[in-house]
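Handoff note, outgoing to incoming analyst
You'll be picking up this chain. Sequence as last confirmed:
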Amino acid sequence: MIDKAHRRACSRLVMISGPIASGKSTLAAELVRLLRLEGFSVALTDLDTVAEMALPTLPNWDWAHGIHAQLVGSWLATGIDIVVDEGTSNPTEVQQVLDQVSGGTDVLHVVLTADFDASLARARADSGRGVSKDPRFLRAEHEAYAHHLPHLPSGLRLHVEGQEPAELARQVFNSLLP
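Most recent structure output, in case you need it:
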């Protein structure tokens, strides 16, 4: 366990960005599990969960992005130790979240990369997925992500293929410690 003074010194936002079906949600859930086992208070925010609140009648994904960003800011304002956020995939989305974060908040940007074929297999294996199972849609999204990748802030870049979620979460956890 990490003592409370050390936990306070580590209060921060962990932003996990990546292409569709790269394992962002899986990594985020595993990281949250690990952080809680270590005694941190943690909130997990997820763009898809915010959007699901209004599906299938969500008129515009921009609304979901705005509400998601506000949710991140609201959790950080509570004084919780760590907010783990996942769902951003381009610099505009990242900035929209950061605009809701008060100055002085430590932010660890975790940027995921993934192979298209493996992402397609993950998407097809997930019964909860819709359009991301379509190879044309997913390819276009992965190409758009590749275009944005050099412009994403990155404190830690992880290639997900060949690594278990627990291994990836441990790498993120270790990056949070001084």
